[in-house]
Amino acid sequence: MSKGRLEAFSDGVIAIIITIMVLELRPPAGIDLHALRELGSDLAAYVLSFVLLGIYWNNHHVLVGAMRRVTAGILWANLHLLFWLSLIPFATAWMGRNPHAPVPLAVYGGVAFLSAIAYTILQMTIIAADGHGSRLAQAVGHDMKGRMSLASYALSIVLAFVYSPISYALFVFVAMVWLVPDRRIAHHPE
User: Fold this and answer.
1) With contact defined as beta carbons under 8 Å apart, do 60 and 123 qualify?
2) How far apart are CA 63 and CA 182, in angstroms?
3) CA-to-CA distance for 80 and 114, rounded, in angstroms?
4) What region, left, alpha or beta, does residue 188 occupy, with left being phi > 0 and alpha being psi -120 to 50 degrees?
5) What is the mean pLDDT of residues 162-179?
6) Would you place residue 52 in the very low, low, confident or very high pLDDT band (cuts 50, 70, 90)?
7) Torsion angle of alpha carbons 154, 157, 159, 162, nearest 10°?
8) What's the rounded Cα separation, in Å, for the pair 9 and 1?
9) Average pLDDT value for residue range 83-98
10) What is the pLDDT at residue 33?
């Protein structure tokens, strides 16, 4: 399989995930701005998840662009990532409808954490296939950004049961860290 097919398949799956997520948004019963305000937590959860998916899509594109070849291990690692990303619409809808409930918030954090783990596995699988002297391996290095994200997501799960605003702040923090595509890879010479 070519890199282009892997990327096209992943792009399609992520587009479907975003479509499912937006279809979960129900229009308000009323016709004024007050009715729209009642959807505030659903809309906020949607925006957060849309940004999260956009970050994965963007960084996945950079990651695939940096790899030399596609192996069976990379295909499985990519499917593993797409599996966890496919759960984002469910976690988003549950959290959006129950913004102050700890379990939906912790589930959202868990899906975010497992998606980040899956991305890390994909990255490591590509490095293993291309070699530790590859462009990707050199660019990623010790991956402090990835480790910090994993720690933040893990902490958000625990804090959902203690003080939920910090969990939300951690989600936004991780998004801000990754909002710009991973320049370590994009700007690392071959």
Assistant:
1) no
2) 9
3) 10
4) beta
5) 95
6) very high
7) -150
8) 11
9) 97
10) 86
Inform me whether the pLDDT recorded for 190 exceeds 60: no
CA 40 to chain centre: 22
Mean pLDDT of the region 120-131: 92
Instruction: Kindly report, residue by residue over 147-159, the tens digit of the pLDDT.
Output: 999 999 999 999 9
DSSP states of the chain: --HHHHHHHHHHHHHHHHHHHHHTPPPPSSSSHHHHHTTHHHHHHHHHHHHHHHHHHHHHHHHHHH-S---HHHHHHHHHHHHHHHTHHHHHHHHHH-TT-HHHHHHHHHHHHHHHHHHHHHHHHHHHHH-TTSHHHHHHTT-HHHHHHHHHHHHHHHHTTT-HHHHHHHHHHHHHHHSS--HHHHT---
Query: What's the whole-number average pLDDT of the chain?
Result: 91
Using CB atoms within 10 Å of the CB of residue 37, give its burial: 0 to 12 exposed, 13 to 18 middle, 19+ buried.
Answer: exposed
> Which of 86, 92, 97 is CA-nearest to residue 108?
92
